[in-house]
């Protein structure tokens, strides 16, 4: 099967936070560090695991976009994504864009609607999954398919795309690989 598929190229894109995003991140980090250290001292490491995971999640959300924690601050990562998508779609490529945060997909969707970018959208709440899949695969004017990682990571054939972007890395790289394989599978003819 692998020899039947075109070449697969993987890139990691790095970007910086905006100044205000970095200030927010540092403020939350400092506040969280103090409260976590107190909790660990009072309750022990074993009993503080959920608080530690919650703090890490909050910091990850700030890195994705501060709007995920209800802060109206610009996101360097989101600005970088917009630049990437503009370059990719300008060349006629089509993209699967995964995020673990449905709220992040909604932020991207709002931007697409304001910018007039045609897209498809699939989350766990999507009822007409097959219709959305067929629309993306068959309508070349739809350049981006927004997918929640959990809902779109398995059981879909999306060979209409030749780019896959994971907006936020998942804890388990195998889950990302499985999602990427929605496009990189039999029927894919593009690198």
Please characterize this protein's 3D structure:
The protein has 191 residues and is α/β, with parallel strands linked by helices. Helix 1 (19-43) runs antiparallel to helix 2. It has a four-stranded parallel β-sheet with strand order 2-3-1-4, with helices on both faces. It is 48% helix and 9% strand.
Kindly summarize this structure in a few lines:
With 191 residues, the chain is α/β, with parallel strands linked by helices. It has helices at 19-43, 49-64, 76-90, 102-115, 129-138, 149-152, 173-180, and strands at residues 95-99, 119-122, 144-148, 163-166.
Blueprint (SSEs and pairs):
Elements: H1 19-43, H2 49-64, H3 76-90, E1 95-99, H4 102-115, E2 119-122, H5 129-138, E3 144-148, H6 149-152, E4 163-166, H7 173-180
Helix pairs in contact: 1-2
Task: Provide key terms for this protein.
191 residues; alpha/beta; four-stranded parallel sheet; 7 helices; globular
Helix/strand order: HHHEHEHEHEH
The 3D shape can be described as globular
Number of helices: 7
**Which regions are unreliable across 5 or more consecutive residues at pLDDT < 50?**
none
**What strand line-up does the widest sheet have?**
2-3-1-4
The mean pLDDT is 89
DSSP summary, beta strand count: 4
Structural class: alpha/beta
What level of helicity do the residues show? 40-55%
Radius of gyration: 19 Å
N-to-C CA distance: 15 Å
Taking the sheet with the most strands, its summary is: 4 strands, parallel
Beta content? 5-15%
């Amino acid at each position: 099967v692998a020899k039947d598929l075109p070449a697969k190229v993987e890139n990691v894109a790095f970007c910086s936070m905006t100044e205000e995003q970095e200030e927010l991140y540092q403020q939350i980090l400092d506040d969280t560090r103090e409260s976590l250290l107190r909790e660990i001292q009072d309750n022990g490491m074993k009993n503080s695991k959920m608080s530690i995971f919650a703090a890490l999640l909050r910091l990850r959300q700030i890195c994705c976009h501060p709007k995920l924690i209800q802060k109206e601050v610009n996101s360097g990562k989101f600005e970088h994504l917009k630049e990437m998508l503009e370059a990719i779609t300008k060349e006629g490529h089509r993209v699967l864009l995964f995020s673990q945060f449905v709220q992040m997909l909604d932020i991207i969707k709002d931007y697409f609607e304001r910018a007039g970018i045609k897209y498809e959208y699939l989350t766990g709440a999507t009822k007409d999954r097959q219709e959305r899949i067929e629309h993306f695969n068959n309508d070349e004017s739809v350049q981006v398919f927004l997918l929640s990682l959990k809902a779109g990571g398995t059981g879909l054939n999306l060979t209409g795309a030749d780019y896959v972007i994971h907006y936020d890395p998942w804890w388990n790289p195998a889950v990302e690989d499985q999602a990427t394989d929605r496009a990189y599978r039999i029927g894919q003819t593009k690198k």
